[in-house]
């Protein structure tokens, strides 16, 4: 390895994912092994994703990381586990153009600079750790020429954050809980790609939250320790639901999909209530959105909207198709209008063509009023994000998108 001041870097983009059958509870806290399988949908990275640049240079004196522009410590065991696992699989890297050769054995001595950025507000409480750890592992695997398939990489990302393993694929993804003690079979697999069910439209209502929420990590630990409902869920309920959900996804059966998605979200929150002390992730606005969707689905001949809530009050609504999504957006904007000083551009993010089609002029059509029922109190939504099922991680070839300076390896 020559001792000049070269910097080699890779930039990758990785999507976030939303579980439709939830992961809640670990059987091994260190390796992050779950007590049940889970299934998620990957969101279009154009709307929600993490961008990460990883770089290596003989001039770096220690591993460093910047998250959304701020330097953070890499000393936590989750980062350390991911870095160790990836380094141990690193291989020779040769860049003939630049005349750089890194041998397999060099990786142990070389240090890394990592910069990561979310294209959505971090404070939104949207699974940022999922996209973040998946992107870190994916980008490092490319930089270090790690010869593993995405499922094997998912087992490394899993050790950063459980839900991260599902962000290594696009479309619909299943995380097999696995049986082995070392976690080598606790990996994610793709069920179908993002083209399989591309009618779906996903609308996220980012709901303002006043309370500091219990983190998923400590929440699920408390549920494992205290909730009998969680034991029943993991043993009896989820195994059946997983099979039914796989069928529903394979057949694009929106009626079953909605039933399973909503029931599973509700059971997850029931488990939180059954935890001692109880954990409340949803708030009044979340509950109002559930009522709205339940009423809507009852008034339609077949269900048109599924809802799911993670460890926070935000609603993730999955509309059967674009026509339903446009109507739903009209109903949502009627019930949760932006504050007078908020313009529509900052109130509806992502695929804004939906809101354009929804049209904001004039009265809400009676048909939609009938579907949402009387919604007299105004709720508190900070903003909406419109998205759809999306692809898995990609390497970005355009060097101008790198978050680190190509000569210094420091944040731009
Ligand atoms: C409610 O993956 O954030 O979003 O593994 O401790 O990092 P750790 O937890 P995390 O938990 C996600 C829980 C969930 C459901 C899900 O994504 O399946």
Automatic annotation (TrEMBL):
Residues of the Mvd1 C-terminal domain: 202-395
Keyword Cell cycle: no
Any one Gene Ontology molecular-function term assigned to this protein's record: diphosphomevalonate decarboxylase activity
GO biological process: isopentenyl diphosphate biosynthetic process, mevalonate pathway; sterol biosynthetic process
InterPro entries: Mev_decarb (IPR005935), Mev_diP_decarb (IPR029765), MVD-like_N (IPR053859), Mvd1_C (IPR041431)
Superkingdom of the source species: Eukaryota
Residue ranges of domain Diphosphomevalonate decarboxylase-like N-terminal in the record: 15-188
Family classification: Belongs to the diphosphomevalonate decarboxylase family.
PANTHER family: DIPHOSPHOMEVALONATE DECARBOXYLASE
Function: Performs the first committed step in the biosynthesis of isoprene-containing compounds such as sterols and terpenoids.
Name assigned to this protein: Diphosphomevalonate decarboxylase
Organism: Arabidopsis thaliana x Arabidopsis arenosa
């Amino acid at each position: 390895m020559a001792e000049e001041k070269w910097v080699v870097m890779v930039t990758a983009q990785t999507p976030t994912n939303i579980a439709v059958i939830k992961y809640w509870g670990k059987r091994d806290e260190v390796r992050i092994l779950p007590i049940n399988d889970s299934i998620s949908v990957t969101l279009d990275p154009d709307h929600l994703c993490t961008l990460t640049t990883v770089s290596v240079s003989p001039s770096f004196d220690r591993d460093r990381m910047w998250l959304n522009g701020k330097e953070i410590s890499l000393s936590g065991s989750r980062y350390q586990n991911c870095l160790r696992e990836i380094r141990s699989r690193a291989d020779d890297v040769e860049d003939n153009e630049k005349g750089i050769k890194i041998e397999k054995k060099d990786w142990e001595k070389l240090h890394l600079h990592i910069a990561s950025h979310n294209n959505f507000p971090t404070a939104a409480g949207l699974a940022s750790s999922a996209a973040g750890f998946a992107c870190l592992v994916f980008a490092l695997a490319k930089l270090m020429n790690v010869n593993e398939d995405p499922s094997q990489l998912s087992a490394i990302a899993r050790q950063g954050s459980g839900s991260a393993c599902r962000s290594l694929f696009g479309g619909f993804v299943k995380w097999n809980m696995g049986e082995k003690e070392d976690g080598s079979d606790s990996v994610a697999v793709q069920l179908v790609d993002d083209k399989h069910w591309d009618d779906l439209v996903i609308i996220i209502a980012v709901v303002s939250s006043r309370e500091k929420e219990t983190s998923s990590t400590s929440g699920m630990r408390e549920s494992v320790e205290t909730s009998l409902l969680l034991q029943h869920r993991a043993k009896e309920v989820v195994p059946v639901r997983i099979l039914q959900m796989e069928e529903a996804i394979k057949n694009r059966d929106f009626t079953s999909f909605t039933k399973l998605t909503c029931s599973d979200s509700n059971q997850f929150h029931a488990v939180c209530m059954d935890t001692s002390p109880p954990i409340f992730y949803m708030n009044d606005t979340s509950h109002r959105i559930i009522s709205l969707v339940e009423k809507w689905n009852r008034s339609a001949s077949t269900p048109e909207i599924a809802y799911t809530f993670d460890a926070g009050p935000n609603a993730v609504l999955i509309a059967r198709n674009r026509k339903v999504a446009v109507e739903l957006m009209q109903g949502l904007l009627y019930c949760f209008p932006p504050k007078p000083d908020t313009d529509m551009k900052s109130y509806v993010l992502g695929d804004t063509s939906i809101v354009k089609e929804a049209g904001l002029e004039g009265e809400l059509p009676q048909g939609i009023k009938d579907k949402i029922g009387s919604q007299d109190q105004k709720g508190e939504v900070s903003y909406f994000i419109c998205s759809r099922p999306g692809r898995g991680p990609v390497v970005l070839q355009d060097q101008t998108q790198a978050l680190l300076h190509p000569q210094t390896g420091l944040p731009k």
